[in-house]
Specification:
With 417 residues, this protein is an alpha/beta fold. The protein has two domains: 271 residues, Glycosidases (TIM Barrel, Alpha-Beta Barrel), CATH 3.20.20; 103 residues, Immunoglobulin-like (Sandwich). The protein is built from nine helices and 21 strands. The strands form five sheets. The protein has an eight-stranded parallel β-sheet. The protein has a six-stranded mixed β-sheet with strand order 2-13-14-21-18-19. The longest helix has 17 residues. The chain is globular. The relative contact order is 0.15.
Amino acid sequence: MPPSTATPVQPSPTPVQTEPGASAAGEKATEADAFVDTIGVNTHFDYHGTPYVTEWPVISQALIKSGIRHIRDGSPSYYEYGSRLATLGAAGIHHGVGFDVTATAETMAQTLASQAPYIDFVEPNNEYDSYASKDPNWVSHLVDELKRLYSTVRANPSYNGIVVLGPALRSQYLYPKLGNLTPIADDGNLHNATCNQNPGTSTDIGIKANIALVHASTTKPVWTTETGYSDAMSRSCGLPDDIIAKYDPRMIAQRFIAGEPRTYFYQFADMPSDPEFGATGLLYSSGQPKPQYTSLSNMIALLSDPGPSFETSRLQYAISGNTTNVEHILLQKRDGTYVILLWLEVPSWKSVNAANVGGERLAISPQSVTLTFASKPSRASLYQYGPNQNLISQTQTSNTSAITINVTDSISFLEIH
């Protein structure tokens, strides 16, 4: 990571051919582990009386077991908080720190010193535009805070790996009011959920539309520090867990394609005391996993490949057949193995009323797609999600350089050796 900015993880620059016969140049892969490193989750280990505190042993172990390496949390508010973040840090889970708009440079420096070396980003006051009725000067106060935060972090060479994010606003349409933040923030900051629509929706709540709104204040890459789905079916935007289990891995994939360096789900565990966002967890409040926890964890386990960064190769291949709405990502591991992610970016759920309460599952027919390789693979393995969100492996055998698979609205993973 450069001294003062996050390295954006970009999708492969060369689009794969969608007709038989691979291009001469091929498609350049992205490191599989870089894809895994874009996944984060919001936590609240400083919230007294919530499962994050009352069920700390169960929830912390579930977090470590998930393979997620990044959390977005608060700042110290009681004596056990720092030690708990250190415990997670020792397990390879780094965190972000947010500051109140009144925080002084001295307070910022003290917090950074107390929580290093496990901080990977900092950000100014969360959704401070929602305080507009209380603070008519919210824009200038927020920008002044960001200037203090950026100067504090950049003044200390030992914090070169810490990314300073711009502010996340509650209303994305207010980003132009912030002015040009490019000189005082390493990357942009977005809160964007797609209600009960599919991750790749092209509506005004979609990923691309909202990244464009943040770019009104910065030219830098944009992180999404809050996104996700709720399984509160009695409320607007609720989805069944089995649909969320399909959408969550696709959410990471779609935001990866959009060039986001990192995406944070909101949130890790349900909080029943929160009427608005209390049912957005990957875990139930007891700490037991939901299907979406399992689907994400299994994707992470399959793609994790920790180690130093390396130069990926190009793969000559083409995709043909029924490619309508088929999305793909090409990854590579350090042993040379390629992993091709394929899925149908279509809605799996349909609202039945204007209030977006309730709905119905959509029957998505698998689409037959053929991948034709310039060189015959020595071995290929296909991993697809089963009913319990475990990945089921099939060895692909063929006397030709073509492999045909059925692509569904859950991600399929094709390993090419």
